[in-house]
Structure formats: structure tokens, C-alpha cells
From TrEMBL:
Compartments, as annotated in UniProt: Cell inner membrane
Name this polypeptide is given: Tripartite ATP-independent periplasmic transporters DctQ component domain-containing protein
GO MF annotation, one: transmembrane transporter activity
Membrane topology: Multi-pass membrane protein
Protein keywords: Cell inner membrane, Cell membrane, Membrane, Transmembrane, Transmembrane helix, Transport
TM helices/strands, residue ranges: 21-42, 62-78, 99-127, 147-169
GO biological process terms, semicolon-separated: C4-dicarboxylate transport
Family: Belongs to the TRAP transporter small permease family.
InterPro entries, alphabetized: DctQ, TRAP_DctQ
GO cellular component, one term: plasma membrane
Domain (Tripartite ATP-independent periplasmic transporters DctQ component) ranges: 36-168
Length: 178
């Protein structure tokens, strides 16, 4: 038996595979962050040295880089527990009430992100059909990014579902916690 796996990984089917996919997406998001920083630095340098910026920096940054960074890292942030967590009220709850609060909030988040997934998929299908582009200093295709948007929401929804299952299986409070 593999001793490096946790209870949650053994009990929740697909969690390890999803964790690997989310980690890969986070690595890609990190690489895109670095490339975006270099691109912006090159734009600023070009503007200061030659008086002319790199054409299309704004369009590429806002339509590609930022979307890839956020959407590819969102599921991983949920997996490692790094999303914003407002505990101003829940910190005073007993363990059972806090568990119920976590379960309800996670369930509502899952429903909301599932709806966003559905609508982003329909938007991606439309964007692909019309070969959607953004107009600016340069014309840039944005239909591929719409696909990434849908994938990012879908992965986030899957991780939320895994978090809910883990709450139900592994984190259920015991009578001794009350």
C-alpha cells in the first residue's frame, strides 16, 4: 500500500488524477505569468528606449495572459485551500456548526460555478463558430481563450465537488468534537 496517500486521496475516487491535472494547469499559469511579465517589461523598455511600445501588448495581456493565469490556477487554489476564506463569523462556531457552514457554502459555490461552467461552454461554442476576435492595435483571436475559460470553470467545479465529498467522508465532526 502506498503510504504517501492521505485518507482523502484513498477514499475520493479520481482525486489524485484531478490533483495532477490541476497542478499541471497551475504550472502553465505560472509560466504564462512569467511570459506576461517579460512581455510587459519588453513593452516598457521599448517605449522608454525607442519611444514606441510593442504593438498589441494590451490586447494580448487582457485577452490571453490574464485569462489563462486566473482560469488555469483557480481549481488548484481551491485544492490547496488558498481561496479567500472569510472566517469573521465562522471562527466562533462550534465544530459541528462550522462543518455545516463549510458544507453549505461549498455546495452553493459548486452550484454557482457549475452554472458558470455551463454558460462558459455555450459562450465557447459560439465563439468557435464565429471565430471570435478582439479588435484593437492588433486583431487577436479570442475563441481559444473562451475554451480555456470553460475548461477552467469545469476543473474548478470538479475540485469543489471533490472538496464537498472530502468534507462528507473525512471531515465530518464526531460527537467528541462538540
Amino acid at each position: 500500500m502506498d503510504t504517501t496517500t492521505t485518507d482523502a486521496e484513498r477514499r475520493v475516487p479520481g482525486q489524485r488524477a484531478l490533483a495532477r491535472v490541476l497542478y499541471g494547469c497551475a504550472v502553465i499559469a505560472g509560466i504564462v505569468t512569467l511570459v506576461m511579465a517579460l512581455h510587459i517589461a519588453a513593452d516598457v523598455s521599448s517605449r522608454n528606449l525607442t519611444g514606441t511600445p510593442l504593438s498589441g501588448t494590451l490586447e494580448i495581456t487582457q485577452n490571453w495572459s490574464m485569462v489563462l493565469i486566473v482560469m488555469l490556477a483557480m481549481g488548484y487554489a481551491e485544492q490547496i485551500g488558498e481561496h479567500i476564506n472569510a472566517t469573521i463569523l465562522t471562527q466562533y462556531l462550534d465544530p459541528v456548526s462550522r462543518w455545516w457552514s463549510d458544507l453549505i457554502v461549498s455546495g452553493l459555490m459548486f452550484l454557482f460555478v457549475s452554472a458558470l461552467t455551463y454558460y462558459s461552454i455555450t459562450a465557447a461554442v459560439f465563439a468557435v463558430e464565429v471565430q471570435q476576435v478582439a479588435l484593437g492595435a492588433i486583431t487577436i483571436p479570442i475563441w481559444p481563450v473562451k475554451i480555456v475559460l470553460a475548461i477552467g470553470f469545469a476543473l474548478f467545479a470538479l475540485q469543489l465537488l471533490m472538496s464537498i465529498i472530502s468534507l462528507l467522508i473525512n471531515d465530518r465532526p464526531r460527537k467528541s468534537d462538540v
